[in-house]
Amino acid sequence: MRTKTAFLILAMIALGTITAFAQNHKENNTPPSANNNVDEASVLIQKLSKDKLVN
Question: How far is 28 from 12, CA to CA, in rounded Å?
Fold first, then answer.
């Protein structure tokens, strides 16, 4: 009886973990926009220029 209860509890925990992972992956799986990439590149270039790593 204890084995069945322990197995059931572990199965419930595993299912909850898998469900949470799948939901998080779905929310974070949006493709980056082209405008966002340009903004990130310009910020990177500004930081490198400030540190005098590029002209």
Answer: 24
